Amino acid sequence: MSEPLPEDRSSEPVTVDSMVSDLHALGIETGHTLLVHGSLSSLGWVCGGAPAVVDALQCVVGEDGNVVMPTHSPGNRDPSDMENPPVPDSWYDTIREQMPPYRPAVTPTQGMGAIAECFRSYPDVHRSDHPQVSFAAWGADAQFVTEYHSFSYSLGEESPLARVYDLGGDVLYLGTSYATSTSLHLAEYRADLDLATETHAGAALVDGEREWVQWKEIDYDDGDFPACGEAFESENPDAFETSTVGVGDAKIVSQPPLVDFAVGWFEASRE
Fold first, then answer.
1. What is the pLDDT of residue 3?
2. Is 11 domain-assigned?
3. What is the number of structural domains in the chain?
4. Of 18, 54, 152, 186, which has the fewest Cβ atoms less than 10 A away?
């Protein structure tokens, strides 16, 4: 199926070259580490679709830099937590026994968008081993970013999010916003908050064998992420840049200042 043409057909098609130019205009250069949250449809009519976006990102940061994306697979969860849609109680045992295990090279993303789904299978991309909230990375530090991704507390200190922080990386929003900014979950871990813990479960390979595994997570809350992002920008006008990539809004934010700010903001704002 071909992509729909834009309503304004006087606009130019979005190409690898035009996106490279747009990304350079945002200040992205060779050697940068980018944690990318992207919406393909927001960019306009992209000549080549998702692979063109991945090609442009790799071209801009080069082999000395890194491209990182969330490649989550939330459907690999305990059936008691399945809500969209819920499944009958009578199915629970079958799902726990038969759910295929998470495999980095095989398991598709869910809800991550076409760019992340394309990126995960690109040559030389590493993908972490977490059965629900994996990340994929390409570049000089791809292995460092993705290895040792803890099952428990999986968006905390032993996660690719923390490794992007260690590298002084940036968050790139392509037609997306703070509402789904996974970096703010890292701040939830680091903040002094009285958060409950939950037990999560899914199918994974353990020593090459499929197992139904369980792990602990904090009770995440992303409802105030947009307000946190707005407050961050108000107080840190030099920590982000906005422009367009294609016809879509784009923003680049330095991740460490964002996370550090969010730690204090959550502590002050959440009861």
1. 55
2. no
3. 1
4. 152
pLDDT at 2: 44
Q: pTM of the predicted model, to two decimals?
A: 0.94
With beta carbons less than 8 A apart as the criterion, state whether 112 and 69 touch: yes
Q: pLDDT band for position 86 (50/70/90)?
A: very high
In a domain, 166, yes or no: yes
Asked whether residue 116 is assigned to any structural domain, the reply reads yes
Q: What is the dihedral of CA 104, 107, 109, 115, to 10 degrees?
A: 70
Q: Please give the C-alpha separations between residue 122 and each of 55, 89, 251, in angstroms, as whole numbers.
A: 10, 38, 24
How many angstroms from the chain centroid is the CA of residue 66? 14
| Angle value at C-alpha 125, between 1 and 182, nearest 5 degrees | 85
Beta bridge partners of 201: 214
CA distance 162 to 57: 21
> Which residues, listed in sequence order, are joined to residue 251 by a DSSP beta bridge?
173, 242
| Model pLDDT, residue 6 | 55
3-state secondary structure 75-128: CCCCHHHCCCCCCCHHHHHHHHHHCCCECCCCCCCCCCCHHHHHHCCCCCCEEC
| Residue 10, pLDDT score | 43
Task: List the structure tokens of 231.
Answer: 């407050």
The three-state secondary structure class of 170 is strand
Asked, for residue 8, whether it belongs to a domain, the answer is: no
Domain range holding 224?
A: 16-269
